[in-house]
Amino acid sequence: MMFTNNPFAAFTDSLPPLAMQVYIIVMALAVVVGTLLDVVHKGSAKFFAQRREKSNAAAQRRLSGGETFSLAVEAIAEAAVSGEFCKWPRRISHLLMMYGFFVYLIATVVMIFAYPTGARTPTILPTLWAIGALMILVGGLWFFFFLRVNVAYDGASPFHLGRADLFIGFLLASIAFALLWHFVQTSYQSPTASRILFGIYIFFTTLLFVSVPWSKFAHMFFKPAVAFQRRVEEASGSSDLPSPSTENHIVRN
Known about the structure:
This protein is mostly helical. The protein has ten helices and no strands. Helix 3 (65-80) packs across helix 9 (219-236) and helix 5 (124-147) packs across helix 7 (166-187).
Protein backbone atom coordinates (compact mmCIF):
# COMPACT_ATOMS: atom_id res chain seq x y z
CA MET A 1 0.00 0.00 0.00
CA MET A 2 1.32 3.41 -1.02
CA PHE A 3 0.42 5.14 2.24
CA THR A 4 1.75 2.45 4.57
CA ASN A 5 5.07 1.21 3.09
CA ASN A 6 8.45 2.84 3.68
CA PRO A 7 9.31 3.96 0.12
CA PHE A 8 13.07 3.89 0.72
CA ALA A 9 13.23 0.34 2.07
CA ALA A 10 12.80 -1.29 -1.35
CA PHE A 11 16.24 -0.11 -2.46
CA THR A 12 18.21 -1.65 0.39
CA ASP A 13 19.11 -4.68 -1.80
CA SER A 14 20.78 -2.58 -4.51
CA LEU A 15 21.51 0.63 -2.61
CA PRO A 16 23.00 0.41 0.89
CA PRO A 17 21.18 2.48 3.53
CA LEU A 18 24.40 4.39 4.18
CA ALA A 19 24.28 5.80 0.64
CA MET A 20 20.94 7.54 1.23
CA GLN A 21 22.05 8.70 4.66
CA VAL A 22 25.19 10.27 3.20
CA TYR A 23 23.08 11.82 0.46
CA ILE A 24 20.81 13.50 3.03
CA ILE A 25 23.84 14.90 4.87
CA VAL A 26 25.41 16.18 1.64
CA MET A 27 22.15 17.90 0.64
CA ALA A 28 21.89 19.53 4.08
CA LEU A 29 25.45 20.84 3.68
CA ALA A 30 24.55 22.09 0.20
CA VAL A 31 21.72 24.16 1.69
CA VAL A 32 24.00 25.63 4.37
CA VAL A 33 26.80 26.45 1.92
CA GLY A 34 24.36 27.74 -0.69
CA THR A 35 22.65 30.00 1.83
CA LEU A 36 26.00 31.41 2.98
CA LEU A 37 27.04 32.04 -0.62
CA ASP A 38 23.72 33.77 -1.24
CA VAL A 39 24.24 35.95 1.84
CA VAL A 40 27.74 36.92 0.71
CA HIS A 41 26.76 37.52 -2.92
CA LYS A 42 23.74 39.68 -2.10
CA GLY A 43 25.41 41.37 0.86
CA SER A 44 22.48 40.47 3.13
CA ALA A 45 24.59 40.14 6.26
CA LYS A 46 26.29 43.49 5.58
CA PHE A 47 22.91 45.11 4.91
CA PHE A 48 21.42 43.83 8.17
CA ALA A 49 24.52 44.93 10.13
CA GLN A 50 24.33 48.43 8.66
CA ARG A 51 20.58 48.54 9.19
CA ARG A 52 20.95 47.48 12.82
CA GLU A 53 23.69 50.09 13.42
CA LYS A 54 21.54 52.81 11.85
CA SER A 55 18.52 51.66 13.87
CA ASN A 56 20.47 51.71 17.15
CA ALA A 57 21.71 55.21 16.45
CA ALA A 58 18.22 56.51 15.66
CA ALA A 59 16.41 54.66 18.45
CA GLN A 60 14.32 56.86 20.68
CA ARG A 61 14.36 54.27 23.46
CA ARG A 62 16.19 51.07 24.28
CA LEU A 63 14.28 47.80 24.32
CA SER A 64 14.56 45.43 27.24
CA GLY A 65 15.50 41.80 26.80
CA GLY A 66 11.89 40.79 27.45
CA GLU A 67 10.59 43.16 24.78
CA THR A 68 13.14 41.91 22.25
CA PHE A 69 12.21 38.30 22.99
CA SER A 70 8.51 39.12 22.62
CA LEU A 71 9.17 40.75 19.24
CA ALA A 72 11.13 37.68 18.12
CA VAL A 73 8.20 35.44 19.09
CA GLU A 74 5.83 37.69 17.14
CA ALA A 75 8.08 37.52 14.07
CA ILE A 76 8.21 33.73 14.27
CA ALA A 77 4.43 33.56 14.72
CA GLU A 78 3.93 35.75 11.65
CA ALA A 79 6.20 33.50 9.59
CA ALA A 80 4.37 30.43 10.91
CA VAL A 81 1.08 31.65 9.41
CA SER A 82 2.62 33.37 6.34
CA GLY A 83 1.32 36.65 7.72
CA GLU A 84 3.31 38.66 5.19
CA PHE A 85 0.73 37.71 2.54
CA CYS A 86 -2.38 39.87 2.65
CA LYS A 87 -4.38 37.79 0.19
CA TRP A 88 -5.69 34.47 1.47
CA PRO A 89 -5.10 32.39 -1.70
CA ARG A 90 -1.36 33.15 -1.64
CA ARG A 91 -1.21 32.59 2.11
CA ILE A 92 -3.00 29.24 1.93
CA SER A 93 -0.86 28.00 -0.96
CA HIS A 94 2.32 28.95 0.91
CA LEU A 95 1.10 27.32 4.11
CA LEU A 96 0.34 24.10 2.24
CA MET A 97 3.82 24.11 0.72
CA MET A 98 5.61 25.10 3.93
CA TYR A 99 3.99 22.64 6.32
CA GLY A 100 3.81 19.95 3.67
CA PHE A 101 7.56 20.34 3.12
CA PHE A 102 8.27 20.13 6.87
CA VAL A 103 6.17 16.98 7.26
CA TYR A 104 7.61 15.38 4.12
CA LEU A 105 11.21 16.23 5.04
CA ILE A 106 10.97 15.05 8.65
CA ALA A 107 9.29 11.79 7.61
CA THR A 108 11.99 11.25 4.96
CA VAL A 109 14.85 11.78 7.41
CA VAL A 110 13.31 9.56 10.09
CA MET A 111 12.60 6.70 7.67
CA ILE A 112 16.09 6.83 6.14
CA PHE A 113 18.02 7.11 9.40
CA ALA A 114 15.82 5.26 11.91
CA TYR A 115 14.25 2.59 9.67
CA PRO A 116 16.67 2.18 6.72
CA THR A 117 15.64 -1.40 5.98
CA GLY A 118 11.93 -0.75 6.45
CA ALA A 119 11.68 -3.19 9.35
CA ARG A 120 9.10 -2.14 11.92
CA THR A 121 8.56 1.22 10.23
CA PRO A 122 5.53 2.84 11.92
CA THR A 123 2.70 3.20 9.42
CA ILE A 124 2.33 6.85 10.35
CA LEU A 125 5.70 7.74 8.76
CA PRO A 126 5.00 6.75 5.13
CA THR A 127 1.48 8.12 5.56
CA LEU A 128 2.84 11.50 6.66
CA TRP A 129 5.45 11.34 3.86
CA ALA A 130 2.72 10.94 1.23
CA ILE A 131 0.39 13.51 2.83
CA GLY A 132 3.21 16.05 3.07
CA ALA A 133 4.13 15.48 -0.57
CA LEU A 134 0.49 15.90 -1.65
CA MET A 135 0.23 19.15 0.35
CA ILE A 136 3.30 20.49 -1.46
CA LEU A 137 1.91 19.44 -4.82
CA VAL A 138 -1.50 21.04 -4.25
CA GLY A 139 -0.13 24.30 -2.84
CA GLY A 140 2.70 24.43 -5.37
CA LEU A 141 0.58 23.80 -8.46
CA TRP A 142 -1.99 26.32 -7.27
CA PHE A 143 0.75 28.92 -6.83
CA PHE A 144 2.60 28.00 -10.04
CA PHE A 145 -0.37 28.14 -12.41
CA PHE A 146 -2.58 30.80 -10.83
CA LEU A 147 -0.91 32.91 -8.14
CA ARG A 148 2.54 33.87 -9.42
CA VAL A 149 2.77 37.62 -9.93
CA ASN A 150 3.78 37.45 -13.58
CA VAL A 151 0.93 35.03 -14.30
CA ALA A 152 -1.83 36.56 -12.16
CA TYR A 153 -1.13 40.24 -12.90
CA ASP A 154 1.13 40.49 -15.95
CA GLY A 155 -0.69 37.97 -18.12
CA ALA A 156 2.41 35.84 -18.68
CA SER A 157 2.11 32.20 -19.60
CA PRO A 158 2.23 29.89 -16.57
CA PHE A 159 4.85 27.88 -18.46
CA HIS A 160 7.19 30.87 -18.69
CA LEU A 161 10.05 30.16 -16.29
CA GLY A 162 12.54 32.65 -14.91
CA ARG A 163 15.25 32.52 -12.30
CA ALA A 164 12.70 33.27 -9.59
CA ASP A 165 10.84 30.08 -10.55
CA LEU A 166 13.80 27.72 -10.03
CA PHE A 167 12.80 26.79 -6.49
CA ILE A 168 9.12 26.10 -7.15
CA GLY A 169 9.91 24.35 -10.44
CA PHE A 170 12.48 21.96 -8.99
CA LEU A 171 10.33 21.40 -5.89
CA LEU A 172 7.26 20.42 -7.89
CA ALA A 173 9.29 18.16 -10.19
CA SER A 174 10.96 16.47 -7.21
CA ILE A 175 7.68 15.86 -5.39
CA ALA A 176 5.79 14.75 -8.50
CA PHE A 177 8.39 12.11 -9.33
CA ALA A 178 8.62 11.07 -5.67
CA LEU A 179 4.92 10.24 -5.63
CA LEU A 180 5.02 8.65 -9.09
CA TRP A 181 8.02 6.53 -8.10
CA HIS A 182 6.31 5.36 -4.91
CA PHE A 183 3.07 4.63 -6.76
CA VAL A 184 4.81 2.49 -9.38
CA GLN A 185 6.93 0.83 -6.69
CA THR A 186 3.93 -0.25 -4.63
CA SER A 187 1.33 -0.85 -7.34
CA TYR A 188 3.13 -2.37 -10.32
CA GLN A 189 6.18 -4.07 -8.79
CA SER A 190 8.33 -3.06 -11.78
CA PRO A 191 11.97 -2.82 -10.64
CA THR A 192 13.17 -1.19 -13.87
CA ALA A 193 10.48 1.51 -13.96
CA SER A 194 10.92 2.07 -10.24
CA ARG A 195 14.69 2.59 -10.61
CA ILE A 196 14.22 5.02 -13.50
CA LEU A 197 11.66 7.09 -11.60
CA PHE A 198 13.79 7.02 -8.47
CA GLY A 199 16.74 8.32 -10.49
CA ILE A 200 14.65 11.20 -11.88
CA TYR A 201 13.35 11.95 -8.39
CA ILE A 202 16.91 12.14 -7.01
CA PHE A 203 18.00 14.26 -9.99
CA PHE A 204 15.39 16.96 -9.36
CA THR A 205 15.85 16.76 -5.59
CA THR A 206 19.58 17.36 -6.05
CA LEU A 207 18.88 20.34 -8.32
CA LEU A 208 16.51 21.73 -5.69
CA PHE A 209 19.16 21.78 -2.98
CA VAL A 210 22.31 22.63 -4.96
CA SER A 211 20.59 25.56 -6.71
CA VAL A 212 20.09 27.47 -3.44
CA PRO A 213 22.51 30.30 -4.41
CA TRP A 214 20.44 31.01 -7.54
CA SER A 215 16.91 30.19 -6.39
CA LYS A 216 14.57 31.69 -3.78
CA PHE A 217 15.20 28.85 -1.33
CA ALA A 218 17.29 31.05 0.98
CA HIS A 219 14.50 33.63 0.94
CA MET A 220 12.61 31.63 3.57
CA PHE A 221 15.44 32.26 6.05
CA PHE A 222 15.52 36.02 5.41
CA LYS A 223 11.82 36.77 5.83
CA PRO A 224 11.65 36.17 9.61
CA ALA A 225 14.84 38.24 10.06
CA VAL A 226 13.35 41.14 8.10
CA ALA A 227 10.07 40.91 10.04
CA PHE A 228 11.95 40.90 13.36
CA GLN A 229 14.07 43.92 12.40
CA ARG A 230 10.97 45.81 11.30
CA ARG A 231 9.30 45.19 14.67
CA VAL A 232 12.42 46.26 16.58
CA GLU A 233 12.63 49.51 14.63
CA GLU A 234 8.95 50.26 15.15
CA ALA A 235 9.15 49.54 18.88
CA SER A 236 12.32 51.58 19.40
CA GLY A 237 11.10 54.52 17.33
CA SER A 238 13.89 54.20 14.76
CA SER A 239 11.77 53.10 11.82
CA ASP A 240 12.04 55.27 8.71
CA LEU A 241 8.88 53.78 7.22
CA PRO A 242 5.74 55.97 7.15
CA SER A 243 3.19 55.33 9.88
CA PRO A 244 -0.35 54.28 8.92
CA SER A 245 -1.63 57.81 9.67
CA THR A 246 1.04 59.30 7.45
CA GLU A 247 0.21 56.87 4.66
CA ASN A 248 -3.48 57.75 4.89
CA HIS A 249 -2.63 61.46 4.77
CA ILE A 250 -0.52 60.91 1.64
CA VAL A 251 -3.29 58.91 -0.03
CA ARG A 252 -5.93 61.58 0.74
CA ASN A 253 -3.73 64.32 -0.65
